[in-house]
Amino acid sequence: MSTPFVIAVDGPAAAGKGTLARRLARELGLPYLDTGLLYRATGRRALDMGADPADPVAAEAAARDLTPADFERPDLRGPAADAAASKVAAIPGVRAALLEFQRGFGARHGAVLDGRDIGTVVFPEARLKLFVTASPEVRAQRRHAELLAKGPAPSLDQVARDMADRDARDANRGVAPLRPAEDAKLLDTSELDAETVFQIALSWAVAAQKAT
């Protein structure tokens, strides 16, 4: 019995990993999961409870109570959701509660999953691991443009500060810190357009499929 083909796409916010992962999934006919939504929805549930997302008890309860409707919420993007997601993601109990869901999703039929610890923790045996990144300045500009497209937005400087704070939390947390897997392919999108990024990643994916 062949092992399901899993592609792990990790990297910091606004590096382009979500756009890339969704397109790879469509091209290869694989299910797609934005694992960040799990943590964003958990953080939002904690906020709804009037709790601090960094509170382990509240955050773990929120993670256990997630429903499919939570992933459809319109308020899962933006600085508040980013910060809440980063805080709950640092809690071991939250990660444990969501780990089984992620592994089950990928193990059924293969998948493309994007997040921050897919290649290091969730699927360390993934046949292709990508670490998608970009310079902090480029990432802040991209996120600012995304927010402006939806309406009033914080200043570019504020977005950059919020992103730097989240990067620091994600990189320095004690559980599953953001870092490339040792065998991940690094893809810096700072000076590449989306089509070029996609073609590079697709060539790696095709090669990984043929190698099995």
UniProtKB/TrEMBL annotation:
GO terms for molecular function: ATP binding; dCMP kinase activity. HAMAP family: Cytidyl_kinase_type1. The keyword Lyase does not apply. The keyword Nucleotide-binding applies. Pfam families: Cytidylate_kin. Keywords: ATP-binding, Cytoplasm, Kinase, Nucleotide-binding, Transferase. It is an enzyme of class 2 (transferase). This is Cytidylate kinase. Belongs to the cytidylate kinase family. Type 1 subfamily. InterPro entries: Cytidylate_kin (IPR003136), Cytidylate_kinase_dom (IPR011994), P-loop_NTPase (IPR027417). Its EC number is 2.7.4.25. It is found in: Cytoplasm. Residues 7-202 form the Cytidylate kinase domain.
